[in-house]
Structures are given as structure tokens and as C-alpha cells.
């Protein structure tokens, strides 16, 4: 426990240093945040156009799908703000910088995560939270202290699920060098399929997105519960699955790290 607390404290210090570095170029930072917000805004604009052609998708109206989109986007932002630096792993390995991480008395994953902060993902977070608040009102979510707590825990659980797959795929770069294409593919599946009710896909695709690649548990299942479309028996599915998957992803990271060879070998 003492080692975990020490790693967490040092990670926070590394991220503070990264934030201070980013703020030296304030205009660039603002542009980065705004670009993230605009990018996600255009994604929702497409859904808005679709919903004006088809007023209901599998029984979900525009406000309800906006709520689903906001919850998924918030979870995505919380996953990627601390993990964005891990996306650079292939370059860190190729340039030999990862060897320096191994020589320092600190978990190399913490060092990698602390390299830089995901700036554009703060734009994702702003759009996601705004959609949750506005769409929640329009969808007539009956907020209570319990529902707010459940929403928070579900967002964290969804973030852990997405971060787990991202970390597991990034860790493969320690042996395969470059897994960027595979990571982009999985991220596209989470972002594009995860923004719609699973029922519209039906059959095998719905099953795959629920029990093989658990996209449904990031936002669809929690949103369905918050909107009264699904029973409370599924309430803890996303948080529990997130904890299990992030633990498994870290084990995969450790396994790949044990087989890491320097680029000079």
C-alpha cells in the first residue's frame, strides 16, 4: 500500500509538471481543448441529424441518446486524460527512452503516464458533462443523491473499462513495437458503437458488443438504468467490470514488461 501511495503521489507531481509546461503555451493549450470540444461536438451533430430523420431509435429519443452520448464521452475523457501519454509508447520504445524508465526507482508505467497530459480530452470532458446535464433535464431523469452517486460510479467504471483495453493493447508494444492500428480500431468501436443503443444492432453484434468487447457497459447499461429502461440488477456491472478489467490489463502490462527487450537487441 505504501508503494501504491508513493507512486500515486509521484504521478500527481509529474502531471503537475506537465500541466505547468503546457500552460507556458496557453494559446496552444486553449486551442487543444477547443479542438477536442469541436471534434466531439461534430460527432453529436451527426447524431442530431440522424435523429431528425428517425425520431426514435430502438425506443430512444434524441434527449435520451444525447444523455447516452454524454455519459460515454465523459467516461472516455476520464480514461484518456491520464492515459494519453501511454499512446506514445511505440515512440518511447523505438527511441530507447523506455530503457531510461527502467533505470529509475519508479514504476515505468507511472513514468509513462506522467510524460504528458491529454489536453484535447479536457474538451471531451466539457462536452460530455454539458450533455449529461442538459440531456438529463430534457430526458426527465429524476435525479437524487443515490442516482448522482450511481452516475459518478458508472462513469468511473466506464472509464476503467476503456482504459483497460487501451493499456492492454499499448502494453503489447513492448514486444510488438507498434500496435497503433489495433488501438485505433478498438477506440473507433468504443466511440462509434458506444454512442448508440445496443438494441439497434441486434443479434450477434449486440451480443459481441456486450459480452466480448464490453462496449455496452461503458455507457449503454448505466444510461438505461438512469433512464428507467433497465432493472437495477445491472447497476454494479460497469464499476465491477471496470475494476476487474483494469487489474487484468495491469497484469498483461507486467507480463509484457517481463519480456521486454531493448531496441538494441
Structure description:
Helices cover 73% and strands 0% of the residues. The protein contains 13 helices and no strands.
Q: Which structural category fits the helices and strands?
A: mainly alpha
Helix content: over 70%
> How far do the termini sit from each other?
35 Å
Number of helices: 13
The portion of residues forming beta strands comes to: under 5%
The whole-number mean of residue pLDDT values reads 86
Gyration radius, rounded: 19 Å
| Sheet of most strands | none
**How do the helices and strands follow one another from N- to C-terminus?**
HHHHHHHHHHHHH
Overall number of strands? 0
Shape annotation: globular
Which consecutive residue ranges, at least 5 long each, have pLDDT under 50? none
Short description:
With 265 residues, this protein is an all-alpha fold.
Helices and strands in order, then pairings?
Elements: H1 2-22, H2 26-53, H3 62-83, H4 89-94, H5 97-103, H6 108-113, H7 120-138, H8 145-171, H9 173-176, H10 180-193, H11 203-212, H12 220-226, H13 237-258
Amino acid at each position: 500500500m505504501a508503494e501504491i501511495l508513493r507512486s500515486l503521489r509521484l504521478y500527481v507531481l509529474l502531471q503537475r509538471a506537465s500541466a505547468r509546461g503546457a500552460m507556458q503555451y496557453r494559446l496552444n493549450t486553449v486551442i487543444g481543448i477547443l479542438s477536442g470540444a469541436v471534434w466531439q461536438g461534430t460527432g453529436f451533430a451527426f447524431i442530431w441529424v440522424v435523429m431528425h430523420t428517425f425520431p426514435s431509435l430502438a425506443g430512444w429519443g434524441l434527449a435520451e441518446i444525447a444523455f447516452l452520448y454524454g455519459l460515454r464521452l465523459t467516461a472516455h475523457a476520464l480514461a484518456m486524460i491520464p492515459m494519453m501519454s501511454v499512446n506514445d509508447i511505440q515512440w518511447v520504445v523505438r527511441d530507447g527512452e523506455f530503457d531510461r524508465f527502467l533505470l529509475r526507482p519508479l514504476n515505468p508505467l507511472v513514468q509513462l503516464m506522467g510524460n504528458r497530459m491529454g489536453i484535447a480530452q479536457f474538451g471531451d470532458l466539457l462536452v460530455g458533462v454539458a450533455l449529461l446535464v442538459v440531456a438529463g433535464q430534457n430526458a426527465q431523469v429524476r435525479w437524487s443523491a443515490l442516482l448522482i452517486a450511481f452516475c459518478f460510479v458508472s462513469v468511473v467504471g466506464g472509464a476503467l473499462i476503456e482504459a483497460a483495453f487501451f493499456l492492454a493493447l499499448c502494453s503489447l508494444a513492448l514486444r510488438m513495437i507498434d500496435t497503433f492500428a489495433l488501438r485505433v480500431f478498438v477506440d473507433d468501436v468504443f466511440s462509434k458503437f458506444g454512442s448508440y443503443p445496443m438494441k439497434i444492432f441486434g443479434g450477434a453484434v449486440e451480443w459481441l458488443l456486450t459480452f466480448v468487447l464490453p462496449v455496452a457497459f461503458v455507457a449503454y447499461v448505466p444510461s438505461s438504468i438512469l433512464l428507467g429502461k433497465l432493472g437495477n440488477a445491472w447497476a454494479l456491472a460497469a464499476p465491477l467490470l471496470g475494476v476487474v478489467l483494469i487489474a487484468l490489463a495491469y497484469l498483461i502490462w507486467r507480463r509484457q514488461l517481463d519480456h521486454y527487450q531493448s531496441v538494441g537487441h
